[in-house]
């Protein structure tokens, strides 16, 4: 009964003349020109701009048109300042992908989401595999590939992290055989966009072209078995015990969301481009490493 009375009272209040919800409109150049032509005081127009959502055109031609329509210099200065603030705010949203709607990243790379922001993993060099004798079966050898450093730079708190693979859309075609120029600041573009003409292998176009490896960590080294050899037998692939399963889904034109069916165990990990996974192709490989805290 009380709820019914409250609802009726609220309905009556909002139905009364002069009482309505505040409408938020977006101010544009034409709006300011209309306010000026209506001969509103400069101070009123400034106050309206200061308290409104704005989307101004502050190009040279637009500024000239404002002046031709008698918009004051103070108002124009405020319009420019307001638009600058809006563009800076939009740029921050794009960099941090804060809207979670279109997954817009400024660079190709592998990102992880934690503490409300997106961080790009840095590439780490993989050393040339060392051939080590097997202790269980005489006459067998293992290729051990090592990553630089004793631990990853980024230590994730979550045992069920979320990653985003952002590819360059212009380089996603399997028929693209153009080799991209290597740059020091864009290792990810090198790996994702490059064609290996000698072997006829295409560049990566989805997370399926990567492997996630759980690394051994001992005596200040991070390593994994990238191949093995024995009498009459050679296997130049990563040992199954090091591979970790993951799932992915496409969330935008060239961005994929990677998740895990089960929690990751604490330790050191890395994403490695599949074309560089075997011991034969380790030289110059880049791994995107991270660790999961205990």
Please describe what this structure looks like.
This protein has 294 residues and is an alpha+beta fold. The protein has two domains: 24-96, no CATH class; 109-292, no CATH class. It is built from six helices and 17 strands. The strands form three sheets. Strands 5, 6, 7, 8, 10, 11, 12, 13, 16 and 17 form a ten-stranded mixed beta sheet that branches. Strands 4-3-9-15-14 form a five-stranded antiparallel beta sheet, with no helix packed on it. It has a two-stranded parallel sheet with strand order 1-2. The longest helix is centred in the first third of the chain and has 24 residues, at 73-96. The protein is rod-shaped. Mean pLDDT is 76; it is low at 2-22, 171-185 and 189-201.
Which tags fit this structure?
2 domains; 24% helix; alpha+beta; 294 residues; 10-stranded mixed β-sheet; 5-stranded antiparallel β-sheet
List the SSEs and their pairings.
Layout: H1 2-15, E1 26-27, H2 29-37, H3 42-50, E2 53-54, H4 60-68, H5 73-96, E3 109-114, E4 117-120, E5 123-125, E6 130-133, E7 141-147, E8 155-156, E9 163-166, H6 187-193, E10 210-218, E11 221-230, E12 233-235, E13 243-244, E14 247-252, E15 255-259, E16 267-273, E17 286-292
Helix pairs in contact: 3-5
Helix content: 10-25%
| Principal-axis shape | rod-shaped
Number of domains: 2
Q: How many H/I helices?
A: 6
What would you call the structural class? Answer: alpha+beta
Sheet bearing the most strands, described?
10 strands, mixed
The total of beta strands comes to 17
**Distance N to C terminus:** 54 Å
Query: Regions with pLDDT < 50 over 5+ consecutive residues?
Result: 2-22, 171-185, 189-201
Report Rg.
29 Å
Q: Average pLDDT, to the nearest integer?
A: 76
**Roughly what fraction of the amino acids lie in strands?**
25-35%
Element-level helix/strand string:
HEHHEHHEEEEEEEHEEEEEEEE
């Amino acid at each position: 009964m009380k709820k019914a009375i409250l609802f009726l009272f609220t309905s009556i209040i909002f139905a009364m003349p002069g009482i309505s919800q505040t409408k938020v409109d977006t101010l544009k150049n034409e709006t300011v020109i209309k306010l000026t032509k209506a001969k509103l005081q400069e101070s009123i127009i400034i106050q309206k701009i200061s308290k409104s959502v704005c989307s101004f055109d502050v190009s040279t031609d637009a500024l000239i048109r404002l002046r031709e329509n008698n918009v004051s210099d103070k108002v124009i200065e405020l319009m420019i300042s307001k638009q600058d603030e809006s563009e800076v705010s939009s740029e921050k949203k794009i960099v941090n992908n804060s809207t979670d709607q279109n997954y817009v990243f400024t660079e190709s790379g592998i990102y992880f989401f934690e503490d409300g922001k997106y961080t790009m993993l840095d590439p780490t060099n993989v050393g040339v595999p060392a051939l080590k004798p097997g202790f269980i079966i005489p006459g067998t050898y293992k290729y051990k590939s090592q990553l630089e450093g004793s631990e990853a730079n980024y230590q994730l708190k979550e045992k069920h992290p979320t990653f985003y693979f952002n590819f360059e859309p212009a380089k996603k075609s399997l028929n693209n055989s153009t080799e991209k120029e290597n740059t020091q600041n864009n290792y990810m573009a090198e790996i994702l966009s490059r064609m290996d003409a000698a072997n006829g292998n295409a560049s990566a176009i989805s997370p399926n072209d990567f492997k996630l490896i759980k690394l051994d960590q001992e005596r200040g080294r991070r390593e994994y078995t990238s191949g093995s050899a024995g009498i009459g037998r050679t296997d130049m692939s990563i040992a199954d015990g090091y591979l970790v399963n993951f799932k992915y889904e496409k969330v935008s034109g060239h961005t994929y969301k990677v998740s895990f069916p089960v929690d990751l165990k604490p330790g050191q990990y890395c994403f490695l481009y599949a074309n560089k996974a075997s011991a034969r192709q380790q030289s110059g490989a880049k791994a995107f490493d991270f660790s999961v805290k205990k």
